[in-house]
Design a protein that fits this description.
- The structure is a single chain.
- This protein is mainly alpha-helical.
- The chain has 2 domains: 31 residues; 107 residues.
- 58% of the residues lie in helices and 0% in strands.
- The chain is extended and about 80 Å long.
- The chain binds heme C (HEC).
- The site of heme C (HEC) has 21 residues, from helix 3 and helix 4.
- Heme C binds next to helix 3 and helix 4.
Length: 144
C-alpha cells in the first residue's frame, strides 16, 4: 500500500516536471521572436552570434558590422534610433548603394501577403517586428 502511494506521488511529480519543462520550452520559443527573426533573416550576413561573419560575407562588397559592439562604440549607450532606422531602411541614402535589404519594405510586403484583404495596420506590424529585433540586438551587446 505504502509503495503504491510513493509510486503515484513519484508519477505525479514526474508529470508535473514534464509539464513545466514542456511549458518552459514552448514559452522560450514563443517569446524570443527577435532571436528567431535574427537567425532567419540576419545571420546569413551578420553571423549567428551577430559578430559579422555570416556565410555570405565573402560575396558582399562591404562587410557587415559586428552588431555586438554597437553600444561599446557609442559610449556605452545602445544607439536604438540609429539601429531602428538602419533596419527599417529610413536611413537609406536616396542614391548610392546599400547592401543590406530594406527590412521595413520586406516586412510591409509580407504583411500584405499575409493579411490579403483583411484590414490590418501595416505600420504597427512593421514596427513590432523591428522592435523585437532591436530588443534582441540590445541583449547581444558586449559589456563595455
Ligand atoms: C545581405 C547581407 C545582410 C543581411 C541579410 C542583413 N544585413 Fe545588416 N548590414 C549588412 C551590411 C553590409 C551592413 C553595413 C552597411 C551597409 O552596407 O548597408 C549592415 C548594417 C546593419 C546595421 C547598422 C549597424 C550600425 O552601425 O548602425 C544594423 C543595425 C543591421 N545591419 C542589422 C541587421 C538586421 C537586424 C538584419 C536582419 C533583419 C540584417 N542586418 C540583415 C548586411 C546585411
Amino acid at each position: 500500500m505504502m509503495s503504491l502511494r510513493i509510486l503515484s506521488l513519484a508519477v505525479s511529480a514526474g508529470l508535473t516536471l514534464m509539464a513545466t519543462s514542456v511549458q518552459a520550452q514552448g514559452q522560450g520559443r514563443m517569446a524570443d521572436l527577435g532571436k528567431r527573426e535574427f537567425e532567419k533573416s540576419c545571420a546569413s550576413c551578420h553571423g549567428m552570434d551577430a559578430r559579422g561573419s555570416g556565410v555570405v560575407t565573402p560575396w558582399l562588397k562591404k562587410s557587415p558590422p559586428d552588431l555586438t559592439l554597437l553600444s561599446k562604440n557609442n559610449g556605452g549607450i545602445f544607439p536604438a534610433d540609429r539601429v531602428y532606422k538602419s533596419i527599417s531602411g529610413e536611413d537609406s541614402p536616396a542614391h548610392g548603394s546599400r547592401e543590406m535589404p530594406v527590412w521595413g519594405q520586406v516586412y510591409r510586403m509580407s504583411a500584405a501577403e499575409y493579411y490579403m484583404d483583411h484590414p490590418y495596420n501595416d505600420e504597427a506590424i512593421v514596427r513590432a517586428r523591428i522592435l523585437s529585433l532591436l530588443e534582441y540586438i540590445n541583449r547581444m551587446q558586449k559589456p563595455r
